[in-house]
Amino acid sequence: MLAVAGVLSTVVLAGAAAVDASNSTSGATPRSKLTVTAPAAPGGGWDLASREFQQALRGDSIVNNVQVVNVPGAGGTIGLGQFVEFGDDPTRLMMTGTVMEGAITVNKSRVNLENTTPIARLAEDYQVFIVPADSPYRTLQDFMAAWKKNPHSHAVGGGGLGGTDHLLAGLAAREAGIDPKEVNYISFAGGGEVLTALLSNTVEIGVSSYNDFRDQIEAGNLRALAVSADRPVPGIDTPTFIEQGVDVSLPNWRGLVAPPGISDAQRQELTDIVTEGTRTAEWEDALTRNKWVDSLLTGDEFADFIRQDQLRVNTIIKELGL
């Protein structure tokens, strides 16, 4: 009987140890561990924003361990679909923004941002029309004139269908008197792939975030024709569409959401963590280097913003017939 009792004690202790080990693995808190999903390929805007914010959280030890995971495809909706399946996990965040709103509608995604828990809008950046340095198009008007003559012969490369790049191309085409449906738009998983297609002459003009092309612009390999801001952006030596007589502007916001089902206390903790991250020297430096405009918005105000902005994007998509 003593032997049996000893065996039973060993089993009980082993079971308790297993439970403790399980709890130690699953009991991570947002302050000890965060995983940020960048729903695009490496090198794109969401990837850049995710990794910049990763450094902000690490630099001031706001979070002990921050990882970024890339899940590219379909304008971010593949990443979104996977993200909502995580359930009420408060140690996960996903980068999102205008691009995903368009892709949700165009791709008829089974899930949308209403299925997530909004945490914070971080910043806005802007898209550019870009060509190789040896392109015959020296100005936006040069390209618009050629584009108008034969829309389909000029391949335009950008991000996912319905995303900011696609919307900007459609809006610019409409302003040039081109039916947006006639635009020969080729979608890629991220800005890195757009750049490769542009430099290999697979597409004639590229559309993406300024930062996707910044190094190549500064190296003289690419020439920016126009930026989608409604006014000149400090540090970007490229005229806006509006300045060149094309009445188009389109901001591209970046923000973070959490999975559905987390508690109010967990949401507040994540909001506090993200807010602290935006106050770091690392994030201030990221805003300056990347020419991003600070646009912090949290809580229910951010949730209301997402609802209204999704409606705005849906209206643009419907008007353009995309």
UniProtKB/TrEMBL annotation:
<dbReference type="InterPro" id="IPR042100">
    <property type="entry name" value="Bug_dom1"/>
</dbReference>
<dbReference type="Pfam" id="PF03401">
    <property type="entry name" value="TctC"/>
</dbReference>
<comment type="similarity">
    <text>Belongs to the UPF0065 (bug) family.</text>
</comment>
<feature type="signal peptide">
    <location>
        <begin position="1"/>
        <end position="16"/>
    </location>
</feature>
<dbReference type="InterPro" id="IPR005064">
    <property type="entry name" value="BUG"/>
</dbReference>
<protein>
    <submittedName>
        <fullName>Tripartite tricarboxylate transporter substrate binding protein</fullName>
    </submittedName>
</protein>
<keyword id="KW-0732">Signal</keyword>
